[in-house]
Amino acid sequence: MGTCRCAPGGRSRGLTLIELLVTLAVLVILLTVAVPGMRNFIKNNRLTAAANGLATTMALARSEAVRRGRPVTVCASAGGTACDGAAWADGWIVFVDQGTPGTVDGSDEIVRVFGDAGDGVTIDLGGMSYVRFLATGELDT
Questions:
Q1: Contact 75, 123 (CB under 8 A)
Q2: 90 lies in some domain
Q3: CB neighbours of 116 closer than 8 A, spacing ≥ 6?
Q4: What's the rounded mean pLDDT across residues 2-23?
Q5: Neighbours of 89 (CB within 10 A)
Q6: What is the rounded distance in angstroms from the CA atom of residue 130 to the CA atom of residue 89?
Q7: Does any domain span residue 63?
Q8: CA angle 73, 77, 83 (to 5 degrees)
């Protein structure tokens, strides 16, 4: 018939049910501790990415204003074509603002469109609907 695959001394080389249950219990405990930490890690990364994206946008707008010798504006825009009063986290645009300040109109050129900042990210610029840089690189207050 069959032969026993036994270790020297006659013992079987497999896992017992008790050993398997203990291993699973340890795994469940480790996952219970690790998953919430991973969620916070992901949230912090999203927040950092949004903050860096907005800071990069402001630097771009300022440098474009100086380079072009014209005012450049950054405003919240969900659609990517106009300052539509959306939340900043829904996206924003950078445009050369030659007409009405803070409004994409007539001869204004959209320089760049930035999309949604991500789930769970809120951006608050203290109630400002747009940020405008003058041709000198100074903020238009």
A1: no
A2: yes
A3: 89, 90, 91
A4: 72
A5: 19
A6: 13
A7: yes
A8: 55
What is the pTM assigned to this prediction?
A: 0.72
Q: Which two tokens stand for residue 62?
A: 């300022």
**CATH number for the domain including 128?**
3.55.40
The answer to whether residue 119 sits within a structural domain is: yes
Range of the domain at 53: 17-133
Instruction: In whole angstroms, give the CA distance from residue 65 to residue 136.
Output: 7
User: For the segment 63-109, what is each residue's pLDDT rounded down to a tens digit?
Assistant: 999 999 999 999 999 888 999 888 899 999 999 999 899 899 988 99
Tally of domains within the chain: 1
Q: How far apart are the first and last CA of the chain?
A: 92
- Tell me, yes or no, whether 140 lies in a domain: no
Give the integer Cα–Cα distance in Å for 99 and 130.
14
